[in-house]
Write a structure and sequence with these properties.
Layout lengths: L9 H13 L4 H17 L5 H15 L10
Length: 73
């Protein structure tokens, strides 16, 4: 797969770097996360950002085996 060559303003780079540090991610992971959320938001314009972010977080928790079965009794 070819790499994307994305040009970002210095301001945007600084913001991504700062957010990445705050989230304990590298800058590539942070940028990838923002792209995933932005694409999901574009596909689902009626959903708030925080809801979409929560969906991604829940999926990561499931993948890590951190979810417990729901007790339906």
């Amino acid at each position: 797969m070819a790499l994307l060559d994305i040009r970002l303003s210095e301001e945007l780079k600084k913001r991504i770097i700062a957010k990445a540090k705050g989230q304990h991610r590298n800058t590539s992971e942070q940028a990838r996360r923002y792209l995933e959320i932005a694409m999901a938001a574009e596909d689902n314009p009626d959903l708030p950002f925080s809801f979409i972010e929560g969906i991604f977080e829940a999926a990561a928790e499931k993948e890590a085996g951190l979810l417990e079965p729901l007790d339906r009794s």
